[in-house]
From TrEMBL:
Keywords: Metal-binding, Zinc, Zinc-finger
InterPro entries: Znf_MYND
Organism: Sistotremastrum suecicum HHB10207 ss-3
Protein name: MYND-type domain-containing protein
Classification via Pfam families: zf-MYND
Record-linked SUPFAM superfamilies: HIT/MYND zinc finger-like
Domain MYND-type span(s) in chain numbering: 5-41
Amino acid sequence: MSYPCAVCRSPSNKRCSGCSKIAYCSTACQKEGWTTHVIECANPGRELTTADHLAAFVRMPRPPTNPEAIRDYGFTNTIMHDRQLAEVYDHLIRVLGVTAPKLNRWKDAGQLEEKIRETFEAAPVTRRGKAYKFFVERGHRFINPVLAKRDQAGYKRMRAMENYLLCVPDGLLCLDVPGTVASWPPEKQQFSFECWTFFNLKTIPRPHEPAYLRLGYCAGQTEDEFDYIADLYDALSKECYVDELTAAYASSSIIRLFEEKGLGPRLHRFSRLRDFIQILSRPYNKSFKGTVWELKASLMMRTTLEPEVGKYWGYHNCKDNSDTYQLSFSLSLLMMGDPTNSNLPGDPMGLMKAAAEGRLFDYASEKYEMARKGKQLLRRLFVTEPNPYCQKELGL
């Protein structure tokens, strides 16, 4: 009687010699499936190790559930990076051919971090993948016993942050985090997540994330400015609980909260203060559609605006990719400036006002000199109607 192969589903009359519970059609399929089957097999032929449990689970890929494997292979300290660490091990096993017994030997010899690094570096650059980048930048800390012990303080800080967000007294745990969060209004759920991710962890949201616009990070131009915004929010979150932050967020009064908590002088030293205030003073649930801030996020991500929006920035006049590139380049200069030319600093609010008035070409001509050919091109591309989204944003 034939059974479907556990790997490729082809019919086979060959069964696992250890337990006879699953079928394999070939040696190759048995080798492929053995990594995950070994921890379930009634007679695997050798004593299992925590590396076997690790290898079985990261093929999903997800962190192991075996407590000893979690401890042995660095998942104790990962907190928000468990999936990425699992992908490091998955890449080692699946792509670079490292076996569970070999991982176990490295671990027993206290050479896990060293041998993983050597294995990645011995592989061609094209076969290292994103797992190598994560390992070098962060993952090695979870595996190195000295660094991991040092990072235990980070885990405690994360637990304290969870208690802070859920208003749980120190030393206690919320036993139903999902249920507690689900009972909150949507705006509190959203803002609490952003408090966790972008305030206390000081993570910088990327242009594709809603928080990049809503929290005013789009006002920044450089890494230093993004870091300054992150530092402002970090300082604010230390002065008040999440309920107070949420109330200020929902009422568009975050700027006032900075002042009330004694952070006004620090806030006013921010080089992009005008833009930051404009963004955070708008209704928290108001769409950014069609505004200069949506345009900025689109330019940074190199994505395409919806046609109904893009036409107000001149994209409907583009005949080919060259036109699109030149238009995007010109809009970027007007909004973000030229880092090599102090006479062209960029002015998002000025660009938005020009768009609202339907005078993009005149505005560009005022801001920087153009060669004759470039001037002819932009004269054609910047033929637009007044932008109603920008008019609404500016109250015109």
